Amino acid sequence: MNDHVTTERRGALQVIRLNRPEKKNAITRAMYAAMAAALKAGDADDEVRCHVILGREGVFSAGNDLADFLAVATGGEGGQEVYDFLLALANAEKPLVSGVDGIAVGIGTTIHLHCDLTLATPGTVFSTPFVDLGLVPEAGSSLIAPMILGHQRAFALLALGQGLPAAEAKTAGLIHAVVEPDALEGAVFAAAEALAAKPPEALRIARDLIRGPREAVVARIQEEATHFRARLKSDEARQAFMAFMSRK
């Protein structure tokens, strides 16, 4: 397993943790591959009843590692690892529970659209500056976010790039609960353990009924990915990435 993504078993829970705090948990291609592998392995293991996804104190994820984006924007290849992870996320067979503290940017926000329960701390802000980087929404967010938030709030998040604080995210239905930082992981594990204790087949059917068919979500992920790959090599994106890197 990649050192920047750790996995552990906690009873019937599989805990996947982003573990690159020195880079604000910016996600590299290797990290995407590790998370995809963990989700698939957990789904294939009958002893795993629920996936838990966590970051570190004060930071869930600053989004995709921009060095990877810049490499593609300047002529490199890549991105299959991201796509594999998004499909594993969208098609996950076990419930997904996530906990978010602090920074949640780009995929650090859209990952939670696929989670069945997300808990966040009061200081958390969800943001998706895709258009500011010359890109487009990803992870099926252009389909799922309007269904949850309504058109205008989803447009403000995904196109305007306006951040959504945790309290507003709860009111809007993006997350399940807001809890204090020192109680976050305990609350996440309690929710996941409660799900893991349910009759598994009844829970699976209930979850499938609530989530609905995955085909439309997968199709939108594919459509977004086509645009995203093209945009990565656009002049707009190249200029935005270089400007961002020069500021760093």
Automatic annotation (TrEMBL):
<keyword id="KW-0413">Isomerase</keyword>
<keyword id="KW-0456">Lyase</keyword>
<keyword id="KW-0576">Peroxisome</keyword>
<dbReference type="Pfam" id="PF00378">
    <property type="entry name" value="ECH_1"/>
</dbReference>
<protein>
    <submittedName>
        <fullName>Enoyl-CoA hydratase</fullName>
        <ecNumber>4.2.1.17</ecNumber>
    </submittedName>
</protein>
<dbReference type="InterPro" id="IPR001753">
    <property type="entry name" value="Enoyl-CoA_hydra/iso"/>
</dbReference>
<dbReference type="InterPro" id="IPR029045">
    <property type="entry name" value="ClpP/crotonase-like_dom_sf"/>
</dbReference>
<dbReference type="GO" id="GO:0004300">
    <property type="term" value="F:enoyl-CoA hydratase activity"/>
</dbReference>
<dbReference type="GO" id="GO:0004165">
    <property type="term" value="F:delta(3)-delta(2)-enoyl-CoA isomerase activity"/>
</dbReference>
<dbReference type="InterPro" id="IPR051053">
    <property type="entry name" value="ECH/Chromodomain_protein"/>
</dbReference>
